[in-house]
Amino acid sequence: MMEVTLTCSECGSGIHVLPAVEAAIAKCDVCAHEAPVKFTNDHVEGVLKDCPCCERKDFYSQKDFNRKIGVTLFVIAAILSIWTYGVSFIVLYALDLFLFRKLSLVVVCYKCTTIFRNVANIKDIYGYNHEMNDRIVYSDHDFEGIQLEH
Ligand SMILES: [Zn+2]
Ligand SMILES: [Zn+2]
């Protein structure tokens, strides 16, 4: 199922929600701020076309790089390399290649930075576009889901 992480507009904490058509509000665990959400049947099926928070259609995909896990793995590999003569670093490299580069892609909303995991139509979503980001964030431009081509 698609997992949605909104950014609380009051305190900046992440608010985790699972899509449900009847859900209208996502409540922040930290400051109790209530963010309005609008889920459709598409979201329930994992298809992302409209943002449930800001209702925009502009998204980008990026690697779900978990820094904490990355650092922990690096430390483990460094300790193990004493006994494995550096083989653990090769294993770490392979792990990184498979785990972080292939499996974990997340989708982010340009406008409200909501993060979506397990998106079914991830193939339709382009990588980060700097110009689109600038125009959406600074000039409030709405691309309506049409990717800017260069
Ligand atoms: Zn909050
Ligand atoms: Zn959004």
How would you portray this structure in words?
The chain has 150 residues and is an alpha+beta fold. It has 2 domains: 1-62 and 106-144, no CATH class; 65-103, no CATH class. 33% of the residues lie in helices and 19% in strands. The protein has helices at residues 41-44, 67-84, 87-103, 130-139, and strands at residues 3-7, 14-17, 25-27, 34-36, 59-63, 105-109, 115-117. The protein has a 5-stranded antiparallel β-sheet. A hairpin with a 6-residue loop joins strand 1 (3-7) and strand 2. The model has no long low-confidence stretch (mean pLDDT 89). The structure holds zinc ion (2 copies). One zinc ion is lined by residues 8, 10-11, 13, 28, 30-31, 33. Keywords: Membrane, Transmembrane, Transmembrane helix. The chain crosses the membrane at residues 69-95.
List the helices and strands and how they pair.
Elements: E1 3-7, E2 14-17, E3 25-27, E4 34-36, H1 41-44, E5 59-63, H2 67-84, H3 87-103, E6 105-109, E7 115-117, H4 130-139
Antiparallel strand pairs: 1-2, 1-7, 3-4, 5-6, 6-7
Work out the radius of gyration.
Answer: 18 Å
Q: On the 0-100 scale, what is the average pLDDT?
A: 89
Strand order of the largest sheet: 2-1-7-6-5
Fraction of helical residues:
25-40%
Beta content: 15-25%
Keyphrases for this structure?
150 residues; alpha+beta; 2 domains; 5-stranded antiparallel beta sheet; 7 strands; binds zinc ion
State the gist of this model.
With 150 residues, this protein is α+β, with helices and mostly antiparallel strands.
